[in-house]
Amino acid sequence: MGLNWHSCSPNGGAFLLCRMPRDRGVFPGQWALSGGGMEPGETMEEALRREIREELGERLVIETVTPFRFRDDLRVKTYADGRTEEIYMIYLIFDCHAANRDVVINEEFDEYAWVRPEDLAGYDLNAATRVTFAAKGFL
Q1: Are the beta carbons of 68 and 94 closer than 8 angstroms?
Q2: Quick one: which of 78, 63, 66, 61 has its CA closest to 23?
C-alpha cells in the first residue's frame, strides 16, 4: 500500500505542477501535483511537509495546510529498469498555501510550473491530478 500526498499549492491563484520523468513512476511523463509517502512515526502534516522539502526544496515556505479530499485506486508503477508493479494507492489530498515560489525540484521531476486554473487544460495532467482538479471545479 502506498500513501500519496498531493499538495495543491495555490500561490497568487496558481498551482504548482511537476512533470514526472518519462521513464519511471506511476504517471511517466505527465504533469502532477507533488506527492510522496509517509514514514513510521510521522503525522500526516509532518510527512507532507517533509515530502515538500525533499521534492521542492528547503526555500519553498508553506504557510497553511488544509485537508481537501481522500480517495484510493490501483495504479501500475514503472521502475527505471523497466519493471512494473501494480500498487494500491491512498491519496490524502491537501491544499497547501505557499508564501513564495522558491522551488528547487529534485530528481523525482523533470520540470515544474506555476499554473493558473484556466490554463490547466493545456497540460498533460495525470489521471489522479485530473480527478483532484475536477473535484475543485477547474476541469
Answers
A1: yes
A2: 78
